[in-house]
């Protein structure tokens, strides 16, 4: 029986993320975690000869969340521009998984037309000794995979 080397699993702290806003690429050094997922939208229906409900994919919805250290005003300024001027900001986020201890290599995913759902505009927490963080939910309208993992080496 073949098995994968545990060393080929991906360490979640090994990688980078970047925002690409108006053509300017900037490392998201303040990022603690990010997760983006795609959910299919489906219609339901029945056909003659089949008693059960069937499903057909009709589209998709991209959404995600990120936890950031509270050290950047970038997203607050974007929200303020929307609040005061009605100008909403869409941008790309590039996420690179790059664990040098794994033989599967690097994966690069670009989330296209990311738009923030909400932003914490100000925060204090007198009861915490931990660094301030903020959770940000977002949607995205497209995705590209510009670099893919290779298959892990299997042992027998």
Specify the oligomeric state: single chain
Structural class: mainly beta
Coarse shape: globular
Major sheet, described briefly?
A: 8 strands, antiparallel
CATH topology: Pnp Oxidase, Chain A
CATH superfamily: Phage tail tube protein
User: Between the first and last Cα atoms, what is the distance in angstroms?
Assistant: 6 Å
Mean of pLDDT: 95
CATH-derived architecture: Roll
From the alpha-carbon coordinates, what is the Rg to the nearest angstrom?
Answer: 20 Å
Query: Which CATH class is shown?
Result: Mainly Beta
Q: Which spans have pLDDT < 50 for at least 5 consecutive residues? A: none
**In total, how many domains does the architecture comprise?**
1
Strand content: over 45%
Work out the number of β strands: 10
Instruction: Give the proportion of residues in helices.
Output: under 10%
